[in-house]
Queue: 2 jobs
Job 1
Amino acid sequence: MRVPMMAGNWKMNCDLDEAEALAKGVVEGVGSIEGVAVVLAPPFTALERVANVITGSNVKLSAQNLYWKASGAYTGEVSPKMLTSCGCAYVIVGHSERRGRFGVPEPDMTDDLIRVFGDTDAAVNTKAKAALGTGLTPIICVGETLAEREAGLTDAIVRDQVIAALEGMDAAQINGVILAYEPVWAIGTGKTCESVEANRVIGVVRAAIDWVAGAGAAADITVLYGGSVKPDNVRELVEQPEIDGGLVGGASLKAGSFNELVTVTKEVRGS
Ligand code: 13P
């Protein structure tokens, strides 16, 4: 039985007061909802402040990234244990904005950076394992760029990213991850991947999980869609059988719109 989820990725937005106000708006609106996991991923600096606001509610805390080492001389990085000590239950790993196939940022065809921070598939795998080893649930993101889609590579890219992210994990560990299909061309662009197509690609994600972990393994794993999820398209997305919820950027920055995403998901998918 998969738990539906709506997760807000605030990215590099919200100072402390803004974060507190936004978290309060979510707790007031959907803080006691059941049957849908509600997750907020503020920037590192606001984790503790948001943790204080959500205490006692059903809202859970996520970080947006981590480094895999426990401690040491890694200037600018944050360890898994630092995140659990802030109250995090989840961490986003392998978001396209953090990736870069060759270990360096990748520009798109207009020279905008689409994969900005150079995390390779191997880094994503190491980060996901470090998260699991510390009791954090990794939300592992996969997805193709526009150029990859236009070259007919969507399924191959998504399959390869899933297999690489799960490399070396045992069945119990794989059972503890969440996947998110986020087509890069749909992130922050207002272009949503058509719900039937998102559903189809999430089928590819599930087939890759089964390939690694054995037939049927994917049936219990929550897989989200991300990329311009908004109140006016969330219903048709979560009505799709393979889509268990959303990983949301822009529409998670206003409590009103995020809460609507949660309530629609509860209506359609909640128990
Ligand atoms: P948008 O909802 O702003 O397109 O961002 C999606 C995303 O990247 C969530 O992780």
Job 2
Amino acid sequence: MQMKQDSPIGIFDSGVGGTSIWKEIHQLLPLESTIYLADSKNAPYGYKSKEEIISLSLKNTDVLLQMGCKIIVVACNTATTNAIDLLRSRYDIPIIGIEPAIKPAALQTYAKSIGILATKGTLSSALFHKTIGEFTKDISVIEIVGEGLVPLIEAGKLDSPELIELLQKYTRPMLVANVDYIVLGCSHYPYLIPHLQKILPENVKIIDSGKAVAKQTRNILKKNKLLKESSTAPVCQFYSNAEISVLKMLLKDFSEKATVVKKDF
Ligand code: DGL
């Protein structure tokens, strides 16, 4: 009989971006099996209503639970900030979310000025406003909606001139406001870090939440006695309900252990 500890970690995102979170989880917990759902057919979530985001999040969670996952990681800031309370009240299983790393940026900024790049859905959520209110009282915060970035990443246009132009446009007002920290509040955006590093002056630091989510996943698994104990090789499955070529491209360094399959859900 399979022990609950051997069951996979379930992870979902509106698309391919949450693989940036999967990579952190896999690095920290290399023995754990995982099932990743890329809801690319419905991406981007960033412009959907709260009700739509909740209904898509419920659908993804149901699929992962039917596949026997022991814990759910919502690898999407937009879904977390709009749906995590409801998911937690609905399911009797640990649910980890991802939120923009406002607190560490607010604690570390020397300039007392930080930038946040995220989706419209995240920036307009009540949870985001609550966090901003709590941690940035004496700090100026420049919030920018990364309009158009997710569709370009979903299309695999990671090095396209359009994408670089958008990054220049979105970081300009942040630089004018003398930010020294930029928070990446969308799990697709860590894939933009190489371009951002070229655009931004050296004193501007980029923060994302990937490592914190991986640590939290480990802590919660441990607390619930759900960490995998056997040393059998992990099974890492990735499902997309759209084209799988970009997902495969982002996972090319893991092709020996990751299976990428198209599936309707
Ligand atoms: N990757 C998602 C996030 O972290 C959502 C992007 C989108 O679908 O708009 O917010």
